[in-house]
UniProtKB/TrEMBL annotation:
It comes from Kordiimonas lacus. GO terms for molecular function: DNA binding; identical protein binding; structural constituent of chromatin. Belongs to the bacterial histone-like protein family. This is DNA-binding protein HU-beta. Histone-like DNA-binding protein which is capable of wrapping DNA to stabilize it, and thus to prevent its denaturation under extreme environmental conditions. Keywords: DNA condensation, DNA-binding. The keyword DNA-binding applies. The keyword Cell membrane does not apply. GO terms for cellular component: cytosol; DnaA-HU complex; HU-DNA complex. GO terms for biological process: chromosome condensation; DNA replication initiation; DNA-templated transcription. InterPro entries: Hist_DNA-bd (IPR000119), Histone-like_DNA-bd_CS (IPR020816), IHF-like_DNA-bd_dom_sf (IPR010992). PROSITE patterns: HISTONE_LIKE (PS00045). Residues 79-114 are annotated as: Disordered.
Amino acid sequence: MPKLHSHFGTNNEIKLFNSEGDTLNKNDLIAKVAEAADLSKADAGKAVDAVFDSISGALSGGGEVRLVGFGTFAVAQRAATKGRNPRTGEEIDIPASKQPKFKAGKGLKDAVNK
């Protein structure tokens, strides 16, 4: 498994990235958090789940989550629109919906562009 680097930014936020560009799954992330923070995988898993649950909870409540240097998670409202059924070509109504969105912060953009 490629090494995942962790760096602390100006506000002690942890930035995790894979130097080889491979896709990481949740288990990989948990393993790297456990290693970086000197935690058991079980405790790291609880911490990762708590972060994801906190972000999901804030967004489902209509809020946003700002992680300075990393990015902002928010909710975007999509208007109702017309679409087409790809099989039949029939016009269909696509209802309005809320979609999660993420805007990368400067620290993340800089890390990606190194």
